[in-house]
Fold:
Amino acid sequence: MAAAASAAAQLAVVSVANRSLASNFEPGSALTIDGSQAPVIELEAVRKVYGTGTIEVEALRGITLSIEQGEYVAVVGPSGSGKSTLMHILGCLDVPTSGNYLLAGEDVSVMDEIELAEVRNRRIGFVFQQFNLLPSLSALRNVELPLSYAAMSREARRPRAQAALERVGLGDRVDHRPGELSGGQQQRVAIARALASEPALLLADEPTGNLDSTATEDVLALFAELHQQGRTVVLITHEEEVAERAARVIRIRDGQIASDEFSTHGGNR
Ligand SMILES: Nc1ncnc2c1ncn2[C@@H]1O[C@H](COP(=O)(O)OP(=O)(O)OP(=O)(O)O)[C@@H](O)[C@H]1O
Ligand SMILES: [Mg+2]
Structure:
């Protein structure tokens, strides 16, 4: 899981826009640089081949899809179908072997490392199945840590982290370390960390995979709320009940899109 590890490392170098978390998120504003209404995500014939020589794995075999600002999309498929590979490409943590990826209308393949880091750190929030929290730090410090790598003073980042934790219902657990929190609470800390930089796009890979049904419900309610506020949410899961909560469900099988449908039940747009 080298890519997930690098994703975790990326979380440590988040820099943030100088806006407060609580209320003034502007839908789409943070992702589209020129204010255009380009889709957030446009993939065209994206292929991803791992390895070289005789043991090649074609994890993605020609993915073409478009996701508009403010959509709530679930990507569902069996183990090994290419979901995490897709998320790594969407999150600019990995690059396609071939095909095109436009993020908010911009061709990711021509961005340099600094631009890519900027995109990852400021515009995309990542949530993983393994919460990737540092065990020795309090919830508050875990949320604060990525902000501390930006040119943000301790005075500025502390209330930002506090607000993010309150946002996920953990205002009374800020001093707890991960080991003193339930799995669901740990995942909510991870979501608070992803939100602290005010990303317009939230990418979540099996965020409920380690949670019981109550904690799953909490996390899904939170995603629904974030979506209602105008964020674009892409949620990867292999659980049908989780996928049904999204407005649109893209099914992946063997690295290809098997179906792409707007939900007739449960989903909210
Ligand atoms: N770094 C890698 N090197 C080589 N092959 C890889 C690598 N990462 C993934 N694969 C292969 O690519 C395919 C897709 O993997 P991926 O992790 O995207 O699946 P997934 O849909 O996320 O599965 P799961 O539900 O089990 O998480 C699998 O066959 C996997 O073995
Ligand atoms: Mg996966």
